[in-house]
Amino acid sequence: MLSSNLTVGENGHLFFRGHDTVALAAEYGTPLYLLDEVRIRENMRMYRRAFQESFGPGSAPLYASKANCFKRIYEIAREEGMGIDVVSSGEIYTAMQAGFPLENAWFHSNNKTDWDIAFAMDQGVGHFVVDNREELDAIARIAGEKGKTQKILLRLTPGIDPHTYEAVATGKVDSKFGTAIETGQAKEMVAYTLSLPTIELEGFHCHVGSQVFGEDVYERTSDIMLEFIRECRDRFHVPLPVLDLGGGYGVRYVDRDGEVDIPAAISRVARHMQQACARLDMAMPQVHMEPGRSIVADAGLTLYTVGTVKKITGYKNYVSVDGGMTDNPRYALYGSAYTVLLADRPEAKPDLRCDVVGRCCESGDIVQPDVDLPEPRRGEILAVCTTGAYNYSMASNYNRLPRPATVMLTEDRAYVAVRRESLEDLVRNDI
Ligand SMILES: *Cc1c(COP(=O)(O)O)cnc(C)c1O
After folding, report:
1. Fewer beta carbons below 10 Å: N end or C end of the chain?
2. Where is the active site (predicted)?
3. DSSP helix/strand/coil, 42
4. Which of 210, 212, 221 to mutate to test the pocket of ligand 1 (most atoms within 8 A of CB)?
């Protein structure tokens, strides 16, 4: 099986974290997001331990909460001692509702509105990650109006191509995110930032991309960032102690994907950085990373009920499910690969090659093309694996489909963490 939380029960059904998925579909309805709470906590602890061992005090992983955002997950992050990344007032509000201590939140986004900035400051968000000069001016002005000094990191683009998909590569010079080092604009930004009395510059941030497997991506990134910090130290005589290397470690969606040994990878980055700092005669910064996908992806599984099985003789076969691009837009957006299993009979011999498609009025509404399945019957349950990241958080109400519920699983318990949207929910804001 793709992941150790997937097993086959004695009744032949697919089990997830020890629970019968067919029984869960019957109890909670479909489409249904399942989230393995045990795995989320394991992943958070794995990062925390790796950071303690490799980087020492002051360094910490932050959960990039855009990957999957709802109240319960912020409670879990708080319980596990994780910091968080947030990218909007909506995420900040959700974290507040969960009692998350916002001094331990880092506020991202390439275009924070004045309203967002004021809201985040009023709620006490600890750190802003500033994308560009206009935004910096707005933050400095609003901090001034509130009589505050705001701690920030400057987001820089180190000019690294992480060899991932184009749509999720973000660290190249021409990216929409951040300020480029190569063009000299980053250096100018630092000088300008240091002139602003309401801003405290803690250091720098970069994020080169997502679903990164490339061996030395973070080493190469840290080389560029450390050199830049060293140049700033020499020129401006300020410490700039924080370096945030962003998120992005890849996860396994299908058998052919590699697997990143994250603690080993972090330990290699740390050793590389210690050597670089010695060579550059500088102190090792406090390091942050912001994993999203690698915290929650393999904790997720989506269940659907099979509807129409359509065979177009001589052409292709379609298996339609009761969800689709509304609950998982990732194939439509990026052509993402997924593993699909027939939850009723995961070990039956595959005898049908088909496209698994959704119920939306859109030809691109494909969950996954070219899947080999035991021919499913109407009413059977299909499971799509590794859907914990960027599924619920990207879900929409296209075609007025209600968003699915999220059911969390522990070893001995299943509980609803996000209720299924009702038809009434869909018209709640219609006047
Ligand atoms: C999306 C994003 C992350 C998380 O990336 P993952 O691939 O989910 O680990 C971290 N930092 C920033 C700035 C991001 O935009």
Report:
1. C
2. 361 (proton donor)
3. helix
4. 210
Pairing status of strand 6-8 against strand 14-16: antiparallel
For 290-310, give one letter per residue: b (16+ CB within 10 A) or e: bbbbbbbbbbbbbbbbbeebe
Query: Which parts of 248-383 fold into alpha helices (H)?
Result: 262-280, 293-296, 330-334
C-alpha of 418 from chain center:
18
The tens-digit pLDDT sequence of the chain (431 residues) is: 899 999 999 999 999 999 999 999 999 999 999 999 999 999 999 999 999 999 988 999 999 999 999 999 999 999 999 999 999 999 999 999 999 999 999 999 999 999 999 999 999 999 999 999 999 999 999 999 999 999 999 999 988 876 665 555 666 677 778 899 999 999 999 999 999 999 999 999 999 888 888 779 999 999 999 999 999 999 999 989 999 999 999 999 999 999 999 999 999 999 999 999 999 999 999 999 999 999 999 999 999 999 999 999 999 999 999 999 999 999 999 999 999 999 999 999 999 999 999 999 999 999 999 999 999 999 999 999 999 999 999 999 999 999 999 999 999 999 999 999 999 999 999 99
Rg for the chain (alpha carbons), in Å? 23
Residue 61: strand pairing partners = 289
Distance of alpha carbon 3 from its chain centroid, rounded? 18
Question: Ligand 1 pocket check: which of 110, 177, 207 to mutate, most ligand atoms within 8 Å of Cβ?
Answer: 207
Alpha carbon distance 58, 54 (integer Å): 12
